[in-house]
Amino acid sequence: MSRKTHRIAVIGGDGTGPEVTAESVKVLDTAAEKFGFGLDKTEFDWGGERYLSTGEVLPADALETLRGFDAILLGAIGHPRVQPGILEKGILLAIRFGLDQYINLRPVKLYPGVDTPLKDKGPGEIDFVVVRENTEGLYTGMGGTTYKGTKNEVATQIMCNTRHGVERCIRYAFELARRRHEDAPWKGLSAEDTGKGYQAQLHLVAKTNVLTFAHDLWWRAFCEVGEEYPDVKKEYAHVDATCMWYVKNPEWFDICVTCNMFGDIITDLGAMIQGGMGIAAGGNINPEGVSMFEPIGGSAPKYTGKNVINPLAAICAGQMLLADLGENDAALAVENAVMWATKNKLKSLSAGKMGYGTTEVGDLIAQAVIDGETPE
Ligand code: IPM
Ligand code: MN
User: Fold this and answer.
1) Positions of E strands within the chain
2) Which CATH superfamily is domain 1-115+277-376 in?
3) Does the C-beta of 88 come closer than 6 Å to ligand 1?
4) 132 vs 34, 66, 95, 100, 103, CA distance in Å?
5) What is the C-alpha separation between 24 and 349, in angstroms, rounded?
6) Which of 131, 132, 260, 264 is the pocket-test mutation for ligand 1 (most atoms within 8 Å of CB)?
7) Which residue among 79, 91, 93 is best mutated to probe the pocket of ligand 1, counting the most ligand atoms within 8 A of its Cβ?
8) Centroid of ligand 2 to alpha carbon of 93 (angstroms)
């Protein structure tokens, strides 16, 4: 059998992005070696520095180039000397929208040994996934300003929801709920058996009491698509209440589906309860096209070049990338290695407090993949 080779685009980006991405690549290469597939990587220097020296955010053929890859690994976008919005819209959102990565998938999972700020909650209670719509909502750039700078200034930012966009996102979430349930240790057990109320479950997180047009569309699409998934328990929570429940009862959640802006906000909360930005990863998914994986934290410019930033989030993004490529054994090995390290090695997930430098954490995980470490 010929060895399979995946083509990966690597965009380190700004600040600590390139450092954490390098560690993720180190782990990916190790996993490829061990599990017998190839990774053909191409690096791109897109980000703030390139913009400051050339005046260009992305080359004109960037999207076309990216379409030629099997997956993209991204570090972070955001530069202290570039006005907010330019790089975010010009690079990150341009790729998400341009490659139609309509799902932003963000697992919230507390790994063993990791401290959560939530009292009395452990890995058994914090394990859910947020499916964030990623190409519409408040992120389309629709709207505008008139009378700018005067006392009559008017600014609108339109929340754009299409039935097509909402429905495909909701359908993805139902499929994920079903799949996750089939793969889970509680497979075949009833909600009573587990004592945790476990059954495949999907929460719609919205604000139907105020957004009576936009989220009425979400609600109707949720109910209608939901009829095709009688095995999935349907729940609804307002977004403000969701913030409360994520802190008070995170064990209630399995999969949450939500609009772009709410997903942005609640996944930062999710990241904190799973141990912080040092561990939180996400995927920008086009189920029919090229997907992009990234740590969800920012570029952390103050830590740049100091070898103190935690690369685990980027490594976990790499793990999601492997799963997306169908390299499931490799993905599992990376996740196990990360859990082994959080349980047995790292003192903290915060920058500078891990007990290891950035590159040492990469070495540790790579070695743990080779050794087949697990948290058990
Ligand atoms: C994220 C980020 C981005 C977003 C920014 C950088 C545009 O916060 O990936 O969550 O709002 O989606
Ligand atoms: Mn965000």
Assistant:
1) 5-13, 38-44, 71-76, 103-109, 127-133, 143-146, 154-157, 201-206, 233-238, 255-258, 281-285, 291-295
2) Isopropylmalate Dehydrogenase (3.40.718.10)
3) yes
4) 33, 22, 16, 13, 6
5) 16
6) 264
7) 93
8) 12
The reply to whether ligand 1 has any atom less than 6 angstroms from the CB of 74 is no
Q: Tell me: the pLDDT tens digits for 206-244? A: 999 999 999 999 999 999 999 999 989 999 999 999 999
pTM for the model? 0.95
pLDDT for res 52:
98
For the chain, give every domain's residue range: 1-115+277-376, 125-274
Distances (CA, A) of 15 to 22, 300, 303, 311: 13, 6, 8, 13
Class assignment of domain 125-274? alpha beta
Express each pLDDT in 37-63 by its tens digit: 999 999 999 999 999 999 999 999 999
